[in-house]
Each structure stands twice: as structure tokens, then as C-alpha cells.
Design a protein that fits this description.
By secondary structure, the protein is α/β, with parallel strands linked by helices. It has helices spanning 10-17, 42-57, 81-100, 110-116, 119-123, 139-147, 195-199, 207-219, 255-263, 283-291, 308-313, 320-333, 352-365, 382-386, 393-418, and strands at 5-6, 20-22, 33-38, 61-62, 71-76, 105-109, 129-131, 152-154, 177-181, 183-184, 203-204, 224-228, 236-237, 253-254, 270-274, 298-300, 338-345, 369-374, 422-430, 437-441, 447-451, 460-468, 473-478. Strand 19 (422-430) and strand 20 form a beta hairpin. It binds S-adenosyl-L-homocysteine (SAH), iron/sulfur cluster and FE3-S4 cluster.
């Protein structure tokens, strides 16, 4: 029952847990057919686009099925035990394929590659290639090594690599919204989290290259970009991690300033970002969001727990009061902002009272959406070394159920409040159920489904909401004349 979530962000849901296949049909060259499968967070999906960019420059074309490939790459996630299990099962499934097709290369990229390194070659004997998140530029030469009959590994982490100059290949998406990676790594060391070990130190990408990527996407018809980082609020350009200026002759850029610059690329290019960190999110950022119509009114602000002692054990760097202060700042500065969160239940030593505090914080905030997880102990983390994973599975399950049930109530309540309102929606494509219906999100990131009429993907349309489920809003398009948009 781990990793259950409820609410209305279908695409995000897919991104968190499931694999997505990147494909590009074109002239296929024998020996250069790539099948790429991605797991984990949006950053990993964004990395897969970088990998596709690097390999396509080297003559590879992607294919939609592993059975057609010469090279199978899995871009993996280590965030919870079950994320790794899923990949292991997948690797087992490739075993027979490898026997039948002797030239087939199977490689593991991403966080599992970084966490397990050479061990992956030994544990999963069918893996030929192990490449960590900062070594993707080396992929062509590593593949060459495999062709020469060697196993190839590069898991070096870097303090500088941001792939700023690589043009990601956007293949899996609708041509409307795209990710832009603005930083890599994480310096926070939350005690439960494996990311600092798999992704290395935090580093920010050159703002010029970010703005340029947004401009190019806009020129190619994209109408929404999501700026990605593990902690976007700690984005810093030309500053040390302590905030000192590196080069006095050049300007410094923080996240609020970066948002400001990207928002000016075009008034009809929507800007989203993820993930915000409660300890670093400033009022400046909130004022920038409020200032620009095209910066979406939606903030994902993971709380993890509603209890201050627990937050200390988690090493999150804020208290319950601090978190609530940030929520109140959002309410004050961006009154119609949707807020979502991540919650971990059953972390080391969690008492019934601490669990209750999470529920009571949820009642205070009434999140529009949440990702909710059972704690899963990860090797090398602070928690693994210092604390005992002592909440019994049954208790974890029950607490997760309570958290999910409460969130479901809140998601439904939040959606019900939207019935009768009119929103500006960016059309992403057909709805899941019918090609007579289109779907897209409002600024608050809720999916809205409505009859197609003559509207098309990539257009903005005003939609009046007439009904809802806990996951989706339903409505119909109304005149494109100016209407009061909520
Ligand atoms: N950088 C983001 C989160 C990245 S991981 C942030 O700081 O908010 C996404 C989510 O996975 C986390 O917010 C957390 O809720 C969950 N998570 C991370 N490690 C976990 C673990 N060991 N067990 C269960 N959930 C975990
Ligand atoms: Fe992990 Fe914490 Fe960094 Fe998020 S901020 S990636 S939870 S260490
Ligand atoms: Fe998973 Fe790595 Fe992302 S562990 S959540 S793919 S940073």
C-alpha cells in the first residue's frame, strides 16, 4: 500500500511511480535502436530527455518497444524500496531477451546506478552498463566499451555538471508542456532521503541557458514549462552555498529573479516549478508569482510531518509553526493558490500523537492534492544509521489509510468549491476516456475535461466548471471573450 495517493494530478501520478517510454519514430539504423524507460521523479524524466539528446546526436533512434531495441536503458529511482523492486523485476524480464538476442545491451542509469554502482553488474548479471546521473555525456564511449566486450561503469558525481548545453529531446510529450531542469543534486540531507547520495551536491544551472531553453520551447509551440530542482528555492547563480558573491563583476540570480526572467519570455507561456522547500521559500518568490499572470498559482510544498519533534528527526530544517507561517504567507500573497504536499507516515519512532499532528496539520491546510508514502528505510541515510525503523507495518498501513482518506475528503471538497467557476485552461490533448473530449489544467494544476468542439491542443480556452470528481473537474468551453478568470 505504499506510495498511494489521491486527487487530481493524473500526469504527476504517472510520473511519480510508473514507467514512461520515450519514443521517436524515424529512420532506424541497425544497431542503434534505443528503448528508454524512466522511473521516479520529474527530474529523472527530464534527465531521460538529456540522455535521448546525447544518444540521438550519436545516431540513435528510439523505438517504442524493448523487443525492437539494440540498446535498452532503464533510468531508475531509489527513493523507496519498492521503486527498486520494480526495476529489478523489469531487469529479470530482459533475461530471456538477452539470451535470444546476443548483441542486445542492457544498461541501468539514474539513482539505482549511483547507489549500487558495480554491485549492479554482479547482482544483476544481465546488466552491461551502469551510468550515474552526472556521467551521461560519457554514454556513447561507454556503449562503445560494451561493444568491445567489456562491462562499463561510470558513476562519478560532479560538482559542476548541469548539462546546460545539451538540447534535450522532447519525445514522450504532447508538444505543449516541457520540463526545464534548473539545478541538480541536493545538499539538504533529510534523514530519510537517499537523493543526496544518488544525485550528489547541489548546483545551479546558468540562468542564460535556462531562459534560452524556455525561448526555444516557446518558439517550437510549447506553452508551459516546469522548472525543476529538488529544492528550487535554493537556486543560486554566481553565489556560493553560503550566499557569498563569487564574481563581483557579474550579477547574482536567485530563484525569485529566475522566475521573473522566465516569466518575461512570453505572456502566454505558463511557468510552473517543483519542488519548493518550506525552509527556503521566501516571500519574494511568492510576490513574483503574484506579479505575473503566467506564473501558475500552484505550489507543491512537501511537509512530510505535522509534528516539530518528528521534523527534527527528519532533519527538515523547519518546525510545524514555520511551515504554517509559509502556508499563511501563500494564502496572504496569492489568495487563489492551490497547494499540494508530500507526507511520510511511520517514520522512525512516530508516536500516535505525532501521527495525529500530521492529520491536524492537514485539516488546517486542506491540501488540494497530496502524495502520501509509508516510510521505507534507505541504505546510507542518516535515519538508517541513527534510528530504528520501528513502526510496525500494520501500524504504518493503518496510518497511511487515515492520511489518504482525509486527503480524499479534502481533494473532493477543494474540487467541489470550483464548480460554477470559469478557468483559463491550457489544452493538453484528448481526455483519457474519449476523443470527443479535451483536457487541460487550470493555473491551479487541476485537470479539467470538456467537450472538444473546435478547440485544439496548445490553445488556451475558458472553461466553466459544472461538475467534479475528487480527481477531475468537468465543464464546457465558454466564449473566448474576456471573462472573469478565477
Ligand atoms: N526534494 C523534494 C522531494 C524529493 S523525494 C523535497 O524535499 O520535498 C519525493 C518524496 O518522496 C519526498 O517528499 C518524501 O515525501 C518521499 N520520500 C523520500 N524518501 C522517502 C523514504 N525513505 N520513504 C518514504 N518516502 C520517502
Ligand atoms: Fe531528499 Fe530532503 Fe533533498 Fe528533498 S530536500 S531531495 S527530501 S534530502
Ligand atoms: Fe528517485 Fe532519484 Fe528522483 S531516487 S525520486 S529518481 S532523484
Amino acid at each position: 500500500m505504499e506510495g498511494l495517493h489521491t486527487g487530481n494530478k493524473v500526469l504527476d501520478e504517472e510520473r511519480q511511480g510508473e514507467a514512461t517510454i520515450i519514443e521517436d519514430k524515424g529512420n532506424l539504423i541497425e544497431g542503434k535502436r534505443l528503448y528508454l524507460e524512466s522511473y521516479g521523479c520529474q527530474m529523472n524524466f527530464s534527465d531521460s530527455e538529456v540522455v535521448a539528446g546525447i544518444l540521438m546526436k550519436n545516431g540513435y533512434k528510439t523505438v517504442p518497444q524493448d523487443s525492437q531495441a539494440d540498446l535498452i536503458l532503464l533510468n531508475t529511482c531509489s527513493i523507496r524500496e519498492n521503486a527498486e523492486q520494480r526495476v529489478r523485476k523489469r531487469l529479470q524480464a530482459f533475461k530471456s531477451a538477452k539470451k535470444e538476442r546476443p548483441g542486445l545491451i542492457v544498461g541501468v542509469l539514474g539513482c539505482m546506478a549511483e547507489r549500487l554502482k558495480k554491485k549492479l553488474l554482479e547482482e544483476e548479471k544481465l546488466v552491461d552498463l551502469v551510468v550515474g546521473p552526472d556521467a551521461y555525456r560519457e554514454l556513447p564511449s561507454l556503449i562503445e566499451e560494451v561493444h568491445q566486450g567489456h562491462k562499463a561503469v561510470n558513476v562519478l558525481l560532479s560538482r559542476e555538471e548541469t548539462y546546460a548545453d545539451i538540447s534535450p529531446v522532447r519525445l514522450d510529450k504532447n508538444g505543449v508542456s516541457a520540463f526545464i531542469s534548473i539545478m541538480r543534486g541536493c545538499d539538504n540531507m533529510c534523514s530519510f532521503c537517499v537523493v543526496p547520495f544518488t544525485r550528489g551536491r547541489e548546483r545551479s544551472r546558468d540562468p542564460e541557458s535556462i531562459v534560452k531553453e524556455a525561448e526555444e520551447l516557446y518558439a517550437n509551440g510549447y506553452r508551459e514549462v516546469t522548472l525543476l530542482g529538488q529544492n528550487v528555492d535554493s537556486y543560486k547563480w554566481n553565489m556560493t552555498s553560503k550566499g557569498r558573491v563569487k564574481d563581483e563583476s557579474k550579477p547574482t540570480v536567485n530563484f525569485a529573479q529566475l522566475l521573473d526572467r522566465v516569466a518575461q519570455v512570453a505572456p502566454d507561456l505558463r511557468i510552473r516549478f517543483s519542488t519548493s522547500h518550506p525552509k527556503d521559500m521566501t516571500d519574494d518568490v511568492l510576490h513574483t508569482i503574484a506579479k505575473y499572470e503566467n506564473i501558475c498559482n500552484y505550489i507543491h510544498l512537501p511537509v512530510q510531518s505535522g509534528n516539530t519533534e518528528m521534523l527534527k528527526r527528519m532533519n527538515r530544517g523547519y518546525s510545524r509553526e514555520w511551515y504554517m507561517n509559509r502556508i499563511e504567507a501563500i494564502w496572504r500573497i496569492i489568495p487563489d493558490c492551490a497547494i499540494s504536499t508530500d507526507i511520510i507516515v511511520g517514520f522512525c519512532g512516530e508516536t500516535e500523537q505525532e501521527h495525529e499532528d500530521t492529520l491536524s496539520l492537514m485539516r488546517k491546510v486542506e491540501y488540494d492534492f497530496a502524495y502520501m508514502f509509508n516510510y521505507s528505510e534507505r541504505p546510507r541515510t542518516l535515519a538508517e544509521r541513527k534510528f530504528e525503523d520501528d513502526v510496525p507495518t500494520e501500524v504504518k498501513k493503518r496510518r497511511l489509510r487515515e492520511v489518504i482518506d482525509l486527503q480524499q475528503e479534502h481533494s473532493l471538497k477543494s474540487n467541489k468549491k470550483q464548480v460554477g467557476k470559469t478557468f483559463e485552461v491550457l489544452i493538453e490533448g484528448f481526455s483519457k476516456k474519449s476523443d470527443q473530449e479535451l483536457c487541460g489544467r487550470n493555473s491551479q494544476n487541476t485537470m479539467i475535461v470538456f467537450p472538444k468542439e473546435n478547440y485544439k491542443k496548445g490553445q488556451y480556452v475558458h472553461v466553466e466548471v459544472t461538475d467534479c470528481t475528487s480527481a477531475t473537474l468537468l465543464g464546457h468551453a465558454v466564449s473566448k471573450e474576456p471573462v472573469e478568470v478565477v
